[in-house]
């Protein structure tokens, strides 16, 4: 399995003391984090994950479970574990990040921190089945959340390319279940919008039940993609989080 297929460094920063691994939302791609990489480099080296089934990996089969995504990312990540690693995931990416952090912990690497954005905790279960909707229904759901990709869905050619990966990602996110099991040793920072239909504050705060490393929560005005309207503030919060972790160790 090729590391280059999965992991993208848009702004290599070999002098950086730490790394931030970024995991996209459902239907998202590594390029979503290009501005994040540019903003945080060279102090923090950003590595973005490219899931199969999109952009330059669009001919590969999509992965339809969170567990399999975490397994495959864990297998290609060892070359990037030579520096302290913080994991950031938005929406579905938060669930992948949590499972990935658990796998790394089981293999002897405790991530310095897990930043979960726009996602309820694994134990905050909902019965969601948007992945079973027809194409029109799934498109309406995507537009309701007002993600960046929603503006592209009026282009039929682009739609045909991205809809299979979106559906696979929705299936992975909506069928993911973990109530009990190992707890993280890493500190968890939860970022969320105050009007996110996919994650209430009570559901977000359940992340505290999944770690022994401490829990913090930051709330911003906005919905599921609140971070698109608060990029400087979110980046500052991530910088502070990574900095606080380095002082602890």
From TrEMBL:
GO terms for molecular function: hydrolase activity. InterPro entries: AB_hydrolase_fold, TEII, TesA-like, Thioesterase. Keywords: Hydrolase. It comes from the Bacteria. Residues 21-242 form the Thioesterase TesA-like domain. Belongs to the thioesterase family. This is Surfactin synthase thioesterase subunit. It comes from Actinokineospora terrae.
């Amino acid at each position: 399995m090729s590391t280059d297929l999965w992991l993208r460094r848009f702004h290599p920063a070999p002098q950086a003391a730490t790394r931030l691994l970024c995991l996209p939302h459902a239907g998202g791609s590594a390029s979503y984090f290009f501005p994040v990489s540019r903003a945080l480099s060279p102090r923090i080296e950003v590595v973005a994950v490219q899931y199969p089934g999109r952009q330059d990996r669009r001919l590969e089969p999509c992965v339809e479970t969170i567990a399999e995504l975490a397994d495959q990312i864990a297998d290609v990540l060892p070359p990037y574990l030579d520096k302290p690693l913080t994991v950031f995931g938005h929406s579905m990416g938060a669930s992948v990040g949590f499972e990935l952090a658990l796998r790394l912990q089981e293999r002897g690497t405790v991530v310095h921190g897990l930043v979960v954005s726009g996602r309820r905790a694994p134990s905050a279960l909902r019965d969601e089945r948007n992945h079973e909707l027809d194409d029109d229904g799934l498109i309406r759901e995507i537009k309701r959340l007002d993600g960046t990709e929603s503006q592209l869905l009026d282009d039929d050619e682009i739609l045909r390319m991205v809809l299979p990966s979106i559906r696979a990602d929705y299936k992975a996110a909506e069928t993911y279940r973990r109530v009990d099991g190992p707890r993280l040793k890493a500190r968890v920072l939860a970022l969320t919008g105050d009007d996110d239909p996919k994650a209430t504050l009570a559901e977000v705060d359940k992340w505290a039940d999944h770690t022994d490393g401490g829990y913090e929560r930051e709330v911003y005005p906005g919905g599921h993609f609140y971070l698109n309207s608060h990029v400087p503030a979110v980046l500052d919060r991530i910088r502070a989080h990574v900095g606080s972790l380095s002082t602890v160790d």
